[in-house]
User: What shape does this take?
Amino acid sequence: MTAVRLWTSIAMLLSACENDPAPKPEARPAPKQGVEIIAAPAGNEEATALIQRESAKAAERGRKLVVYVGAEWCEPCQYFHEAAVAGRLDSDFPTLTLLEFDHDRDLARLERAGCRSPMIPLFSLPDASGRCTERRIS
Assistant: This one.
């Protein structure tokens, strides 16, 4: 997948969540502008619990959470991660929070959370239960 197609696909995925019919609180702090990456910690905590917690935190700050699954050996993952860290995606995704999982380390708990994909990188919008939905790009 080319970089342009990847960014376009991510933009389409995120624009789908902009039409969220959930009511918004009246007073909301201004969100940090730009892509924020939260590395999922290694360990035995279920991915669903971690995703639920980070989704709630992101929502409180007026941000959108997307589950991101990548790997150190994956070239598109490296390219995307470097672009996000360098701030090159901030203007396109000013309120995006990525919960980043490592495909190799976290595979078992990702499978239990419905975040399995035959290809990476994977970007998925989670549901309220912390499971990855079919609203995804891989």
About this structure: The longest strand covers residues 64-70. Residues 24 and 62 are 9 Å apart (CA to CA). DSSP finds four helices and five strands in the chain. The two ends are 9 Å apart (CA to CA).
